[in-house]
Specification:
The protein is α+β, with helices and mostly antiparallel strands and about 100 residues long. It has a single domain, classed as Double Stranded RNA Binding Domain (2-Layer Sandwich). The protein contains two helices and five strands. The chain has a five-stranded mixed sheet with strand order 1-2-3-4-5, covered by helices on one side. β1 and β2 form a beta hairpin. The longest helix is centred in the middle third of the chain and has 21 residues.
Length: about 100
């Protein structure tokens, strides 16, 4: 990943890295999924600080997703590899939420 061009910030405390290669329609869906989970994390925990996601293409058909949330000065992470970006994104964020329950 090179510098700042691959970074997208949503609302100040959410960062997406590696998502710039997506087309406009895919990015809209990604933002909706991420926004829904960020709201859920924020609503359920008053000390939600930040959420960051990194997308890496593995080989040519799989997406590797890394998610990190900072809550109460603790870092919680999850990973997922899936050929479907949206299913993988949903899964990696679901794992974060379940670790906080």
């Amino acid at each position: 990943m090179t510098g700042g061009d691959s970074l997208i910030e949503l609302g100040g405390n959410i960062t997406l890295t590696g998502f710039k290669q997506l087309d406009y329609a895919e990015l809209i869906v990604v933002k909706k999924i991420v926004g829904r989970y960020a709201r859920q994390l924020s609503d359920s925990n008053n000390n939600f600080e930040s959420l960051s996601l990194t997308l890496k293409e593995v080989h040519t058909s799989n997406n590797e997703l890394h998610a990190k949330v900072v809550v109460n000065n603790s870092i919680i992470t999850s990973e997922e590899v899936n050929h479907n970006l949206f299913i993988g994104l949903d899964s990696v964020l679901k794992k974060l939420v379940s670790q906080l329950e």
